[in-house]
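Notebook, p. 212. Picked up where the previous page left off. The plan for this session was modest: take the two constructs that came back from the sequencing core last week, fold each one, and keep the raw output in the notebook itself so nobody has to go hunting through shared drives later. Recording the first one now, exactly as returned: residue sequence, then the structure token string.
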Amino acid sequence: MLFSSLTFLFVFLPITLFLYYLSPKNWKNGILLILSILFFAWGGVSYTFLFIASIFINFFFAKQINRTKKSRKNWLIAGIATNVTLLVTFKYLTFFIGNINLLFFNLGASATLFPELKIMLPLGISFYTFHQMSMLWDIYRREDKIDLKLSECALYVAFFPQLIAGPIVRYKDIILQIQRRSESWELFTKGAERFIIGLAKKVIIANTMAALADEIFSFNPQELSASAVWLGTIAYTLQIYFDFSGYSDMAIGLANMFGFRLLENFNLPYTARSIQEFWRRWHISLSTWFRDYVYIPLGGNRSGSAKTYFNLSLVFILTGFWHGATWSFVFWGVFHGFFLIIERIGLAKLLSKYALIGWAYTMTVVMIGWIFFRIENFSTALEFIQQLFTAQTPEQIELIYFINSENILILIVGICFAAPIGLSWNTLLFEKFNIFIGRQVMLRQTLLLGLFLYAVMLINANSYNPFIYFKF
């Protein structure tokens, strides 16, 4: 079920809020858990049983880690291995089998070594698997025993605002809120406002940019001029940011409406002046997850430069692979890892002296990287990148072919709200806005209501357009 669907906005969410606030305090977590599982089941009943089974299995491992002293590390390893096996089976097994068969075919094999499999990717498996590995790690790192309850662990994993596409919430950051929290009208209204802003990001900006990027990237690369490919790349750069940060805003806002406070997932990443800074601002919950649960346990930067570079390379190969089982995603991770390493070697010091050059370099690297992210066929992605720097010929389709008044307007709006020359939505609406109009709550709420109604009109008029990160 999409947050940006009429079913969610006018059926599921109102019913959930009604039942939650009408129920006694000791029922609230149960209400959220049941409705969160129904929310997940809406996207695919068949894999709901897998999801529920994974919760029970991980709770078993959590209990063993929490109960024992001598063998807790073995239970942690077993739990992590089980989760990785689950993820590999459903997300990567087809990829591995296909590449092994291709390798043996190129070596002269007359028949495929393994039968081809068609395994459908379960909704949200990357996110809820990472949530559960976080839970096992956090329980392992505690020296004292804690009172583990299945209902609380299940709600941590299944809580619908962050279930399908994040943010990746740490067990240690949320468990106390699951056990005891206080709702307030102030937090509820703050959450509703944040949700509307996220909805507007997705429906007004991301969807418009998606249509433009889809149109451009549907052509053969050689048919397009360099300016047209750059336009498509910029459109996708804006699409993925407003799509995913919009989802995160909606998730954080929904959590606020139920009394929860989730950590931020984006901090104007397109203002970064290095790739290191970009990853401190982009998908913060994922980058910090890999830092704390992979990079640091591997030794981080404590064992010399060579080991540090190896750890960084491995982390970003895994980061790319986490996003999808294609070589384009793997290369995207390697691509970012390469620039992180050369920045550590010395480029970062040079970039820090020239802010504008640092920003231009970062955005160029990020946008070229997004082409690998957008186009899953590796060779086709390379052709589009080559076209970015190819001289135009008369028969190629020019940029003007794809431009209309709506695209121009949304491009300008998107750039202003995402780039260094702009302001964040929250700053514009909730800080700068108040300077000019005073604290006129009604005027601000009228503006938000207008955004909401316009977004609903677009949802009603446009076709199905899921969030990009749903497929991860």
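Okay, moving on. Second construct, recorded in the same format:
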Amino acid sequence: MPTKTTDGKASAKKAADKPAAKAAGSKPNALQKPLQPSKELAAIVGSDPLPRGEVVSKIWDYIKKNNLQNPENKREILADDKLKPIFGKPKVTMFEMNKHLAQHLK
């Protein structure tokens, strides 16, 4: 669909205007870069370096397996003995969780 320019004329977007696709061997972005978990986090996700997305996925698997979501408010995570050292408090919201996980990844 043509778009209007500032002078009122219609212009069509061309394929050449789009950025080129990344090469197959390109550098991984920040979410794909493997990071080393702290010893506290390694107790849950393992000690091998993992991308941030895999760490979050494994934490969610652990939370669901151990029924650690507050039944009255599923956005809250109730920390057990393994999660308390990571979160630093007895419960966090799912939105706070990534902030706490980032402190345990190098």
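Notes on construct two before I forget. The chain has a mean pLDDT of 85.
Flagging for discussion at group meeting.
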